[in-house]
Amino acid sequence: MEDQLKEAIRLRSEKEMAKAETLFQSLIKANPNQGNLYYHYAWLCDNMERETEAIPLYEKALGLSLSPEEKKGAYLGLASTYRVTGNYQLSVDLLRQAIAEFPQQKEFDIFLAMALYNIKEHEESMEILLKHIAANSKNKGVQSYAKAIQYYSDKLDQIFD
């Protein structure tokens, strides 16, 4: 099975979508309890712009066993797919779950900021982004003001006398 999975992933990466899909479907039929198969097939559906088909595949993958790397990818893939299909609150909720489980994965924060924007939580969205910029920008000008950016990140509407 591992060799076939590697082949399906290779086909996906080389944009041979129909061949990859046939192989993923065959693998899932033969191994219906392998979470990584659903995850990689969901990823393929996303690449094919078939987001609504990807959602139940990501959900199934997360309900089964995944390696930590696959689980991170499934969280991000599903949350992003929820967001682009208008399921903003589901995206926010899943990203908060992912952040609780993998707090070191800062990419979740960025996708959370986008989903928060979609639900009109602009203050929290901006705070997340500003803190990320202050902590991670390599730009010397930004770094020279990193403490101020961090400080004001949650005070954007506050007026100081």
CATH-level-4 superfamily name of the domain at 2-90: Tetratricopeptide repeat domain
Measured as a percent range, the helix fraction is: over 70%
Multimeric organization: single chain
| Tally of strands | 0
Describe it for me?
It is a single chain. With about 160 residues, this protein is mostly helical. The protein has a domain at about 1-90: Serine Threonine Protein Phosphatase 5, Tetratricopeptide repeat (Alpha Horseshoe). It is about 75% helix and about 0% strand. It contains ten helices and no strands. Helix 1 runs antiparallel to helix 2 (about 15-30). The longest helix is centred in the middle third of the chain and has 17 residues, at about 70-85.
Provide key terms for this protein.
0% strand; 161 residues; mainly alpha; Serine Threonine Protein Phosphatase 5, Tetratricopeptide repeat
Present the secondary structure layout.
Layout: H1 2-13, H2 17-30, H3 35-47, H4 51-63, H5 68-84, H6 88-101, H7 107-118, H8 122-136, H9 140-144, H10 146-152
Helix pairs in contact: 1-2, 2-3, 3-4, 3-5, 4-5, 5-6, 5-7, 6-7, 7-8, 8-10
Brief overview, please?
With 161 residues, the protein is mostly helical.
